[in-house]
Amino acid sequence: MPHAPPLGALLRHYAAGAALACEPVDQGLLNRGYRLRTTRGRYFLKHHFDPDTADPASIARQHRATERLADLGVPVAPPLPGHDGRTVAVVAGHAYALHPWIDGRHRHGAQLTPAECGRLGALLGVVHTSLERVMPAHGEVPAAREERLPPASPAPPASPAHKWVRTTPTATPAPAERPASPAPSDPADTGTADPSDTFALIDDLLARVRRHHPADSFDELARHRLLERRTLLELHADRRPPHTGPVGWVHGDFHPFNLLYRGDAPAAIVDWDRLGVQPRGEEAVRAAAIFFVRPDGALDLPKARAYARGYRRTAMATPSELAAAVHRVWWERLNDFWMLRWHYERGDTRADSQFPAASALAVWWTQEYDAVCAAFSD
């Protein structure tokens, strides 16, 4: 088994019995997971492999958060403690955590009824308000985000499937999110994408597309979208938004493959690696842009409206807060080329299948800007 975990040491740490079977499960873009069956039960073993998310102290903080959220009734999957009470096991310099195995399935927005979309938004609102209860007080932390490229060493092959559950995914893979960047050091920096930087990036990517031989259909689509996006930015460069709105603790990566359903009810929100302080409304809008995007790049606005109403009710968010978040996330998408950077700068094609819908969304969102704002603020 590639990248076999040190089962002997880990099972002794967790007093989890003897291993009967251990199989890699489909992975996301950062960490590794294993379906583990022992003489004492079934588990999910997580190897915190990505350097940006592998700090044991940060992992322990995430674990404490999920434990406290579980006490409030939020559907999560807290880790299991070891014999010393710690939930993080560090073996040979690598951090691991053991979680209960949860049977369930992922559901994309197309598989949800309008009422279920409302409950989904309400659930995210509950997550945000519950995090405020269980996490330490925070200050105003700017929400600057940047494109993060994979580490120089090749990342392990991965599919966009889940990490936690035995399931047959029927949804479109969720676009991967990047980690939040540090706050801008220049106080005058708005923390949002600068179109002059984006124009330079577009030129660089177009040059990379031209140099790629033999040209293929992906190159053709990339060139079309880059030229199209440059035109849109030239038209809307004066609409750069301020950097932030009301901030709070957020999950950081809320999308269909980090939410498990059992029947029609959410069973567990998983993968808390990006827990942090960010504008809450932006997480709500980003999640909707993943749950409710159609293959042609359009958003299902009736479902997004039901979702937003549910979120505003439980998060106590105002319509103007959501409208401002829509503007900031729209601008982010308009300047966003991380999938092309992975493809052309790193030769990493794992996100290629997501590019057609994601790139079409930015164009459609610009054309239907008023309708999108109305869906989130009505």
Explain the overall architecture.
By secondary structure, this protein is α+β, with helices and mostly antiparallel strands. It folds into two domains: 94 residues, Phosphorylase Kinase, domain 1 (2-Layer Sandwich); 228 residues, Aminoglycoside 3'-phosphotransferase, Chain: A, domain 2 (Alpha-Beta Complex). The chain is 41% helix and 13% strand. The chain has a five-stranded antiparallel beta sheet, with helices on one face. Strands 6-9 form a two-stranded antiparallel sheet. Strands 7-8 form a two-stranded antiparallel sheet. Helix 6 packs antiparallel against helix 7, helix 6 crosses helix 8 and helix 8 runs antiparallel to helix 11. The longest helix is centred in the N-terminal third of the chain and has 21 residues. The radius of gyration is 21 Å and the shape is globular. The protein starts with 6 loop residues before the first helix and ends with a helix. About 14% of the residues have low confidence.
Could you tell me the CATH topology label of the largest domain. Aminoglycoside 3'-phosphotransferase, Chain: A, domain 2
Strand order of the largest sheet: 1-2-3-5-4
Estimated share of beta-strand residues: 5-15%
For the record, the CATH class of the largest domain is Alpha Beta
What overall geometry do the principal axes of the alpha carbons give? globular
Helicity, as a percent range: 40-55%
CATH homologous superfamily designation of the largest domain? Aminoglycoside phosphotransferase (APH), C-terminal lobe
Which structural class do you get from the secondary structure elements? alpha+beta
Number of alpha- plus pi-helical segments: 11
How many domains? 2
Instruction: Please state the second-level CATH architecture of the largest domain.
Output: Alpha-Beta Complex
Would you count the extended β strands for me?
9
